[in-house]
Design a protein that fits this description.
Layout lengths: L2 E3 L6 E3 L3 E7 L5 E3 L7 E7 L2 H9 L2 H6 L5 H9 L2
Antiparallel strand pairs: 1-2, 3-4, 3-5
The protein binds zinc ion.
The site of zinc ion (ZN) has 7 residues, from loops.
Amino acid sequence: MTERKCVGCGEIKNRDELIKITKEHATDSIVINGNSKIFGRSAYLCYNKSCIENALKKNKLQKILKTPISAELKGQLINEL
Ligand SMILES: [Zn+2]
């Protein structure tokens, strides 16, 4: 079982219970729940609006992925819920 930590609340959960956000190394683009062929720096969030907002509000996601998080990406994350 693969466990990952949510950026929003800090809880450790099964990978399947988290949204994976990857900054693809090859293209520098952000991929949400990409397949195993996507390589890059990744962050994880619960399927939970408060975790998404917490991670964005404190710029945690931005710091982990080392890239600015656009309003468009925020909308995409909310759409995953
Ligand atoms: Zn969380």
